[in-house]
Amino acid sequence: MQQPEHIRFDIPVIGEHHPVVIVGAGGIVEGAHLPAYAIAGIQVAGIYDPDQSKAARVAAAFNVPRVYASMEALVQENGRHGIYDIAVPGSQLVNVISRLPDNCFVLMQKPMGENLEQAEQILQLCRSKRITAGVNFQMRYAPYIAMARQMMAAGMLGDICDAEIYLNVYTPWHMWDFLKTAPRLEILYHSIHYIDLFRNLFGEPARIFAKTTRHPDMQALQAVKSNIIMDYGDFLRAHISTNHVHKFGPHHQDAFVKIEGTKGAVKIKLGLLMNYPQGTEDVFEYTLPDGPPDTWRRLPVNGSWFPHAFIGSMHELIKAQQGLVAAPDNSVEDCVHTMRLVEQAYAS
Question: N or C: which terminus of the chain has fewer CB atoms within 10 Å of its end residue's CB?
Fold first, then answer.
């Protein structure tokens, strides 16, 4: 059995690949996509954004060699051989993907559309154009999730019987202007990651239940708090609780993922989400049967959700293009099931 000291996250070896071209030069590209690609040695050939000055600034900051004047120029130069990294709001995905060449490779920023109808449309569009496409549900590939996954696979935790994600933080939603008009907010743009993570770890739940809540100080926004239960039967509780409006300083802010099994448990502090956007340190703690039940130990975390998890999302597309896998782990065929759960959560 693998020993705890061997549990770690390593930057994947990428290998030779066709360069990435990026559509969109917003904050997520500047703060996560491009830093992740720089860490992993993923080649980026160019970038396009309708705001040419923004694209030029981001390209200069990350030594991206080409700023395209239009989508048409980007597509004409790269054809079906480039990997298209589409970082636009979910409502724009259909329009952008429809302009890409058939038989190409695409990584689209989450969510996969703003609702299930758009997600199904994206799925059918990718099928009809024979596009190999993945969705950037990157929490699956966060360093500490990779470490927890290794412990689970090695049987260290035993049978998993409890999984919880808890947030009591202050999220500055005003940083994203498009959210002011978004008909759905917290689950679609945040807790979707946690729903996706649980189904990636534990499979499809039998049902999902949810209640979202707005805040009186944020009248312009839809719900900014959620309680979500994913039904995995009688022996596994899976619960997500988020409050993004704890505006009383960092003292009682908290954010964690906890996974308990019959033999041991893991608790991961999500430092990125506390005191956002500055963040605090991520902490990976575990307890196993080789010590007293109240003894928790730490393992070092080599990276964080932002930007390191974004390496994993793009690596899945690169592996598919290299022929190492038949389809990326985060394929649209898989991720549409996350969108279906999101729709069921809102319906509930």
Answer: N
Element (H, E) at 298: strand 297-299
Q: How many CB atoms lie within 10 A of CB 300?
A: 12
User: Do 27 and 68 sit in the same domain of this protein?
Assistant: yes
Identify the DSSP state of 215. Answer: -
Is 175 within the bounds of a domain? yes
Does pTM top 0.90 for this prediction?
yes
C-alpha distances (whole Å) from 249 to each of 254, 257, 319, 333 are 11, 21, 43, 41
Asked if residue 91 is part of any domain, the answer here is yes
CA distance 83 to 45: 10
Strand ranges (E), 197-251: 207-213, 225-231, 237-243
Q: How far apart are CA 274 and CA 291, in angstroms?
A: 30
Residue 102 lies in a domain: yes
**Rounded distance, CA 78 to CA 329, Å?**
24
Residue 213 included in any domain:
yes
Q: What is the pLDDT of residues 126-142, one digit of tens each?
A: 999 999 999 999 999 99
φ/ψ (deg, to 5) at 124? -65, -35
pLDDT digits (tens, 9 = 90+) for 79-101: 999 899 999 999 999 999 999 99
- Let me know whether 67 and 194 are in one domain: no
Cα Rg, the chain, nearest whole Å? 20
Give me 222's structure tokens. Answer: 């839809």
Residues 87 and 207 reside in one and the same domain: no
Residue 25: domain span: 16-137+309-330
